[in-house]
């Protein structure tokens, strides 16, 4: 049995309107994403002050905008390219690779000769900054992406 195709009158016009709306939303969304990433990074830097020794950790907090590449050694030991609608906030670079130890702390360990290395208490900065900002970021992005009420 042959299938019949059905056509909606004006479907092409509707598709073009959706495409224009998508482009308009994208133009507003990217600056909001970058602003949210910068706010998150600023709070992370503020919270990381408690663990300051040299300032390397604070200086290693980077915001990677849409389409950009993260610094070396900041995302799972390598570089990562942010998606079209994605902002990455990372800590760590080729000189500073201890942010996970500051965030979570360490248990006491021992050298090969048996002398203790001591333990480092956790001084979280990454997750608390995210938790402080997630509602504001979500609402900002929802205001942009939500359809207008007519």
Characterize the structure shown.
The chain is mostly helical. The chain has one domain (11-145). The chain is built from four helices and four strands. The mean pLDDT is 84. It comes from Paracoccus saliphilus.
Q: Which value, in Å, is the CA radius of gyration?
A: 23 Å
Give the strand order, joined by hyphens, for the main sheet: 1-2
What's the helix count? 4
H/E element order: HHEEHEEH
Net shape: elongated
The secondary-structure class comes to mainly alpha
Describe the largest sheet.
2 strands, antiparallel
In short:
With 150 residues, the protein is mostly helical.
List the defining traits of the structure above.
150 residues, mainly alpha, two-stranded antiparallel sheet, 4 helices, 4 strands, elongated, Bacteriophage HK97-gp10, putative tail-component, HK97-gp10_tail
Write the layout of secondary structure elements.
Blueprint: H1 11-48, H2 56-59, E1 62-64, E2 88-90, H3 99-104, E3 106-110, E4 116-120, H4 126-145
Helix pairs in contact: 1-4
């Amino acid at each position: 049995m042959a299938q019949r195709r059905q056509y909606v009158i004006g479907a092409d016009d509707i598709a073009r309107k959706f495409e224009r709306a998508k482009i308009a939303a994208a133009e507003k969304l990217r600056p909001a994403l970058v602003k949210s990433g910068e706010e998150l990074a600023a709070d992370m830097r503020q919270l990381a002050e408690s663990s300051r020794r040299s300032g390397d950790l604070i200086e290693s907090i980077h915001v990677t905008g849409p389409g950009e590449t993260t610094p070396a050694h900041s995302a799972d030991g390598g570089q990562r390219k942010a998606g079209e609608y994605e902002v990455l906030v990372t800590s760590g670079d080729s000189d500073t690779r201890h942010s996970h130890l500051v965030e979570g702390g360490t248990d006491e360990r021992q050298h090969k000769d048996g002398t203790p290395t001591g333990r480092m208490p956790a001084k979280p900065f990454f997750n608390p900054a995210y938790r402080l900002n997630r509602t504001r970021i979500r609402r900002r992005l929802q205001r942009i992406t939500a359809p207008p009420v007519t």
